[in-house]
Design goal:
about 220 residues, alpha+beta, 8 helices, single chain
Length: about 220
């Protein structure tokens, strides 16, 4: 599995959790995800949906679980209600350089991730509140965009080509994004604040020494 796939919360049902690891995971929400998958495989979509709605009603889960639950519900033909459709659970920024892509992601539960184009990175699982304000700034800037654009139709596209950037908003209705040249987005009234907030969060993540898990190079 490409680690970047975990950022976008759009994995197929057999990869959340991985089919091969079903016996190794326990507790909620994993058990409900597995039950939903089994019901769906057996043709009982109504029961599969019920399991996913039970996940959505659980408190204090990772934002990525709620997004994955909506990914599976949409695959089963159910769309979110209007008051939930554009609830912003996460923002993922991709900046494409000549030798790779820098990616920074932030979620409503105050977790965050950063992957440098070299392959090194940082995973922030909210060990403390020191990055909360920076994460909130990024999400607030993203909310000003998501209400003005529609969802992407079709599979998530590959990362943008060198010189371009993409701002991805993760909501129950599906992926919303804007993409253009990096300098163009920096100068945009809505996109500029998102990139600026993302850059500040990236700096803080790379400087974090307590509670941050470093990805190997």
């Amino acid at each position: 599995m490409d680690i970047l796939d975990l950022f976008f919360c759009d994995l197929p049902a057999d990869r959340w959790p991985e089919q091969s690891s079903t016996k190794e995971v326990s507790g909620e929400p994993w058990e409900s995800f597995i039950k939903s998958r089994e019901f769906s495989t057996g043709g009982d979509n109504q029961s599969a949906k019920q399991c996913l709605h039970e996940i959505l009603s659980m408190n204090n889960l990772e934002s990525r679980h709620y997004l994955q639950a909506w990914t599976f519900l949409r695959a089963l033909g159910e769309q979110p209600p209007a008051d939930e459709a554009k609830h912003l659970y996460g923002v993922v920024i991709e900046v494409a350089l000549d030798d790779g892509v820098d990616v920074v992601a932030a979620y409503e539960d105050h977790t965050a991730r950063y992957i440098n184009h070299s392959g090194a990175g940082v995973v922030w699982e909210h060990p403390n509140d020191s990055l909360n304000e920076l994460i909130d700034d990024l999400l607030n800037a993203g909310r000003r965009i998501v209400d003005k654009i529609g969802p992407w139709e079709g599979p998530r596209p590959p990362s943008p080509p060198a010189g371009q950037a993409r701002i991805n908003m993760l909501v129950p209705l599906g992926l919303h994004f804007g993409q253009a040249g990096y300098e163009v987005l920096c100068g945009d009234q809505l996109a500029g604040p998102v990139l600026n907030a993302g850059f500040k969060l990236m700096q803080a993540l790379t400087e974090a020494t307590v509670g941050a898990d470093k990805l190997p190079r």
